[in-house]
Structures are given as structure tokens and as C-alpha cells.
Design a protein that fits this description.
Elements lengths: L17 H6 L1 H9 L3 H9 L1 H7 L4 H8 L3 H6 L4 H10 L4 H9 L3 H12 L1
């Protein structure tokens, strides 16, 4: 068995594999579109319609509308593309790290400092 076949869960981690990539294809495509200012403007003017334009599932659309970054990871979102959406919300990767670990932003930053020592 190759390491690619190992589906052993890692506590606190949402595995992003080929199956999840397929599930999140449209979601990640939508997030990538936020590189363009006109896409950000279109999203901000009608979020649900923008999600429909990209063919998101209802679960993905709800996670977008609810700003549920963890839910988006569970719906096949790649952290690299979700960073575009998070940026639109004024969040950065440390904010997402805090969400993923259940820590406050300050606690997460301190965890990073402690890990570097």
C-alpha cells in the first residue's frame, strides 16, 4: 500500500485528496475567480447568484453565505483557493489556522512562536 492509499484520519485534519478535489472543483474555481476585481464586485453584489453561476452545491453555497471556512474545507475546498475567499473577507492564513485549531488568533500566533523556539 502506498502512502497515497492511506486513509487513516489525522485528528483535526480534513484530508484533501482526489475525491475531495473532484467534490470541490466548482468551489475552488469560484474562489480562484476572486483574483479579478470584477469577480469580487459581482460576488459582493449578489453572493447567491454568483455561487449559482459556478454550480456550487447547496452545502457549498450555504458555507459561503455563512462564512464557514471549515465547512468549505469539508465541502472540498482547497486551502490555497479558499485563501482567496478568506482574503475577500479580510481574513489571513493565521485567522484560518486559528479557526482550524479552535484557538483564538492570539493563541494561534503564540503557538506559532512557541513552535519556532
Amino acid at each position: 500500500m502506498s502512502y497515497l492509499d492511506d486513509k487513516t484520519p489525522i485528528k483535526g485534519t480534513i484530508m484533501f485528496d482526489g475525491e475531495m478535489a473532484s467534490l470541490g472543483y466548482n468551489l475552488n474555481k469560484l474562489c480562484y475567480s476572486f483574483n479579478q476585481e470584477d469577480a469580487r464586485d459581482a460576488f459582493n453584489s449578489n453572493e447567491r447568484a454568483y455561487c449559482e453561476k459556478y454550480g456550487l452545491t447547496e452545502g457549498q453555497t450555504l458555507a459561503i453565505l455563512e462564512r464557514n471556512i471549515i465547512g468549505l474545507l469539508e465541502q472540498g475546498g482547497s486551502i490555497y483557493y479558499l485563501a482567496k475567499f478568506a482574503g475577500l473577507l479580510g481574513l489571513n492564513m493565521q485567522d484560518i489556522g486559528a479557526l482550524q485549531t479552535g484557538l483564538t488568533l492570539e493563541e494561534f500566533k503564540q503557538k506559532l512562536v512557541d513552535a519556532g523556539e
